[in-house]
Amino acid sequence: MEGKVKLQEVLPADIEKRSFEIISREMGDVKLDPLEEPIVKRVIHTSADFDYLENLVFSPGAVETAMEAILQGVTIVTDTNMAWSGINKRALERFGGKACCFMADEDVREAAGKDGTTRAAASMKKAASLPGPLIFAIGNAPTALVTLYELIQEGRLCPALIIGVPVGFVNVVESKELILKTDVPYIVARGRKGGSNIAAAICNALLYQCGGRD
Amino acid sequence: MEGKVKLQEVLPADIEKRSFEIISREMGDVKLDPLEEPIVKRVIHTSADFDYLENLVFSPGAVETAMEAILQGVTIVTDTNMAWSGINKRALERFGGKACCFMADEDVREAAGKDGTTRAAASMKKAASLPGPLIFAIGNAPTALVTLYELIQEGRLCPALIIGVPVGFVNVVESKELILKTDVPYIVARGRKGGSNIAAAICNALLYQCGGRD
């Protein structure tokens, strides 16, 4: 019935393994830091886009710091419900962690209106008062990254990790460059590319590296 | 405080407009079908990836058929909660439509176990019995597309549109090619690229084209 289209016979459980083998093969001789490599590969797995081999930059020790935070029971803050949806909450809860997104909250809408800013910016301010450790997973809003930058500069926020991977054409590149200037641990996709799916994939890669899926 | 990083001063409401202007400019002389163009541009807006100029293929009249379905009150079925999250439900509800994802349903888990198939495949079978019109927005699972293909061949499903944009390395290309062989309306991202974000972006582009965001 399927004519000339030939599907590979792969058990569902083996598809991810096979995918990572293909990614490794196509990466060729590229040598990555052993802690960073699974994250880069999962992002490529999620996007089928090898540009991330070049685009993804890690501050020194970012992965270790993030893994420690996860093992302590981290709160992951996202700037979209899509990123929130994509995070493996079962893996996160194994370590006593949780994920939250304040974008749709009424008080965030009100604060944004009052301050003449975006809901993304207001939701970051709200999140900054949560008890740590905190990981920020930003896949959409440059204004979220700009607000995080300002909070850090003002000494009001000390995140365990900033995942800075908004996608787009206006202030996206610039907002990421701001994060690269900070001293906080970061994983940033330089350039225009990124997205909520990329933000979630990086969170999941970190969780799996901690043993969240064993 | 921001050193050499210079942010553009753009009102939040204007960011999308400015982004689409940049996309149009960088597309250059490419001529697209006027009904398909806003969809291609929104996908590029969501991914910052101009490969979709080449990858996205539309069956003749697919956009019109999908828009008619939306105006009648469509049910959009997704294969991930991420895609479901990304769909603008307010726009959809304006036309009496709704979005659903059965992946986490207990009966789907059981059916997949019993049939030795994936939850994605089982969730498509469950969705096939919904009252129409139906749009399937598949951004993750090749097995969802294969199941839709089989249901169509067996005459058990007549969707208003299949959005076939799974991402990945195993059976992804092949499952999309299957959909290209059908007579049903489709929007497919040929090749490896796609994702839940792309599936949601295509749904939203269709909704906005119907006036869902005026």
TrEMBL record, chains A, B:
<keyword id="KW-0413">Isomerase</keyword>
<comment type="similarity">
    <text>Belongs to the CobH/CbiC family.</text>
</comment>
<keyword id="KW-0169">Cobalamin biosynthesis</keyword>
<comment type="pathway">
    <text>Cofactor biosynthesis; adenosylcobalamin biosynthesis.</text>
</comment>
<dbReference type="Pfam" id="PF02570">
    <property type="entry name" value="CbiC"/>
</dbReference>
<protein>
    <submittedName>
        <fullName>Precorrin-8X methylmutase</fullName>
    </submittedName>
</protein>
<dbReference type="InterPro" id="IPR003722">
    <property type="entry name" value="Cbl_synth_CobH/CbiC"/>
</dbReference>
<dbReference type="GO" id="GO:0009236">
    <property type="term" value="P:cobalamin biosynthetic process"/>
</dbReference>
<dbReference type="InterPro" id="IPR036588">
    <property type="entry name" value="CobH/CbiC_sf"/>
</dbReference>
<feature type="domain" description="Cobalamin biosynthesis precorrin-8X methylmutase CobH/CbiC">
    <location>
        <begin position="14"/>
        <end position="208"/>
    </location>
</feature>
<dbReference type="GO" id="GO:0016993">
    <property type="term" value="F:precorrin-8X methylmutase activity"/>
</dbReference>
